[in-house]
Specification:
CATH class of the largest domain: Mainly Alpha
Number of domains: 2
CATH topology of the largest domain: Rhomboid-like fold
Largest sheet: 2 strands, antiparallel
Structural class: mainly alpha
Helix content: 55-70%
Strand content: under 5%
Radius of gyration: 22 Å
Distance between the termini: 28 Å
Number of strands: 2
Strand order of the largest sheet: 1-2
Oligomer: single chain
CATH superfamily of the largest domain: Rhomboid-like
Amino acid sequence: MLEDRSYMRADPHRPRWSATVILMVVVIVCFALQQIADTYVKGGGRWISDHLALSTGGLKRWELWQLIAFQFLHVGLLHIICNLLGLWFFGRFVEDRLGTTTFLKLYFLSGVAGGVLQSGLGGLFPGYFGTIPTYGASAGVCGLFAAFALMEPHAEVRVMGVIPVKAKQLLWISGGIAGFFTLVPSDSGYAHAAHLGGFLAAIGFMRWDTARIPLRWNLLQGRQRKRQLVQTAAQFSRWRGPRNASTPELPPGEFISREVDPILDKISAHGIHSLTPEERKVLEAARARMAKR
């Protein structure tokens, strides 16, 4: 389960104020100021909607700061709570795995890409996408979830806190919903194009940076691709050195997750030449097991 994983537990050596926590605090403060301005400042809510929330008209006026500002605004309590939960559960993992700088690049790139797609479609199809301004951190959170799903595809995510779904399956479902309502824009209450832009930007970012960020899942590859990787690497191991030791006998699923996946991640990150003789023997054992199946 998601909460059982190491990155979801408290780490005494981790700084208390991570970028994820700081982002959450800033989002909460901005939401509070937004509510105060809307309630007590004459025309405050209208000014925020016209100049800080994302709109096609605002970008036509070259108010480009809207691409960042809209990510800190929300339309209601439920809206901000959902995005804060996404930041909390996925942001901590992504920041821990990628580092603070890359985490922030990924987050804001996803948000800006979502905003560009949403407002761009608003310019092309104003009757469907340009009717109301866009608010929220959802595009950035979608990007964080996409990065999480690429790195931990088999992690269990509980939808609405109840329904267990694997991360990769939830990414396909969420992306499919966003894509469908972008092509069929009949649900005007949600910025589906912004969500889709966040997903796509994060996937592109992660695929582009795979030389440094080991991924456990490719959207276009599955079990057959993993089999091919193991066989190719194992053949290389045979050519490079003798096999004179055996690996521990583990159940097939546990053997793959504990022994083979980390080696494939290492190959993705550093190349096959980085493997030790023992790691090559593990791959040869995995190839032999797969040949029997």
